[in-house]
Amino acid sequence: MDRLDNTQDIPMEVPITNKEMENLLTLQQEILGKIAIGKQYQDTLNDLCRTAESMLSNSVASIMLFDDKKESLVVKAAPNIPIEAINALNGLIPGEHSGSCGTAVFKGLPQFVCDTREDIRWSKTSFQDFASAFGIDACWSMPIRGDKDSVIGSFALSSMEKRKPHKFHKKLLETCAGIVAIILKREAEEEKLHHMAHYDELTQLPNRILFSDRFTQAVAHSKRTNNMLAVCFLDLDNFKPVNDNYGHEVGDKLLIEVAARIKKTLREEDTVSRQGGDEFALLLGDIASIAQCEEAIGRILKVLAQPYLIDDVTHKISASIGISIYPLENVDLDTLIRHADQAMYLAKLSGKNQQRLFSTSDHEQTINDQGKLQEIKQALAQKDFQLYFQPKVNMKTGEVFGTEALIRWIHPEKGLIPPLDFLPFVGGSDLEIQIGGWVINEALKQLNDWQQQGIKLEVSINISSHHLQSTAFFDQLNEALDKYPNVSSQSLQLEILESSSLGDIETISGIIKSCQNVLGVKVALDDFGTGYSSLTHMKNLSADTIKIDQTFVRDLLDDPNDYSIIEGIIGLAKAFNREVIAEGVETTNHGLMLLVMGCSEAQGYGISRPLTVDGLVSWLADYKPNKHWIDYGNRNLSLQEQKILLLQLTTEHWFNSVNKVLLTMEDSGFGQYFMKCHLGEWLSRFEDEKIFNQEWLEQLKQAHDALFSLARHLVEQHLAGKIDEVREGIEELKTSYSAVFSLLNGYSQHSVASASFAALSSKK
Fold it and tell me: Considering the entire predicted model, what is its pTM?
């Protein structure tokens, strides 16, 4: 067994005197007093060493603690030990023969080495050279204990002469080691309090206080380097539905992952701070140009838009970011953040998942927007909103089967305000949810009133993605249905905007199924085809009806591309066993085109504009089905006859548009479609399909080429201002058009399509 492992081998018959006890108490009170008044911990540890040294002549004191890895010891305080000695001691690994300090830590017992040249703990190790180099003849060491009695280091007195300790010396070391433990515990508590005061508890990111301090430092640096710095405000898109539908625990995990992604994307010198909720602030220093800043923000947007896998569920969110630049805006931090927040708000209004640089005009717009929000909120409270209803008809049968409820603002001074002039201002807000709840209740109230009058109609209402995913939605709908028990839930249809950002498809799919299966309401995907993932929505969302967006229907007669899109949507709807309806039907010919393509349900100005309740009742009383649509519905056309009718409708429309341009000398916008003549597009397709006689196709192609070539020539003269030449050529154009139409009408002498078209033409 090694000699002098602990105090049992030390003759300590010399008792502690009253004076020595008094000195120990004084030492303790003095050092603890310094802690109480907030003296720096390093200074206090150094003072402790010096005071201990004063109680043992010709000695030096040292404090050694574990490093961050808890593997080796480093000198924490040793005010009177040369730096060379400190460097030699740093990195000491506790063990059986690691000097007084290393052994005390290793064994967890006091170590009193009275002769460093003879004691095995020193003599047979590298410490022998250390003792000789610095004249250490004796060394006494006491373990320092932390939480749960764990050893965290040692306090040592090294003497320049061989000596044995008395009981007082042991008590001195015990007292000093205990004081060190108190100092370290207080320091850890201070650090914890400092961390809590400056860092967000959930994400461990800097909070507002530390962000402000970093900003002050960044401004000083910016002034020295003449570089800019950017203050950015980031708000997550579609985060609230995750929190509402999956719980705050999942929401917190998502925020932690967001924080980690942002931090990993930023440079080390930049700062990201959580401001609260799902809002973050970024501080980007040393910005040489706005383009550099926008590039950095672009990387963050891209990273945050990647899917998140939390508890085996995939979530998709994005972020909107506003940017303000210092010193382009030479204002304080609060103003920079407010401006960045305003720019972020505009980024959200512009479609989310994007960045926006603050400008003065943005500031004015934000103020106007906020004023508008207050006005809209007041309008809701004062019951200034009203529902208008646009009829839906089955063109084949002539039946009016439903209406779409459309909100209007009846302003006491400005009169009727259409929805596009106020709904965008409430997008993504709680006010949007309140207005949506009002629409649900008003629509069901009207259904109830109509039912009592014997009017049987289906009513559809528009539901935004934000409203649909809110915690309030299902309860609003359920309570409204309970309020009107006589109204069949099958009479209500929810139109969900497919073109908006639908967010978490799995969540929305679950909500839609609950609405259908639990409440029994119908669901339609509105604006279908304008979104970025229509096929995905068709596959994953169990909507009953697909609504073709009016942007495709409006130009159906002009643009063959719109025809192809609508043809594809109708084909998809049939493949997925969905109903299909077209909005934006403005003329009889639009309706005929859709009927030929296989879509029989429609709404639009060609049927009726949106009407008040009284206006709709009057319209229903006077309603007469479109005889041309009914006539088509009563006939059984062959595939060839359907194609001929399509060509007749589109070619006549094309000719009339060209003729109008030439006669009025105005380009009403048709110019963009001139090169997209339906007939020219379809001739090659018909050759591939082989449903028409080839000889007839060749004749039609020659007639079309002559017509199109002449039309192009006249349009070019028109654009060149050659008015007389154009007027002289119009009669020739009409003759060329008649030749084409003659071929279309004459394909079958008894063509039902020709008869149908002749009937249609006779109405003019």
Answer: 0.60
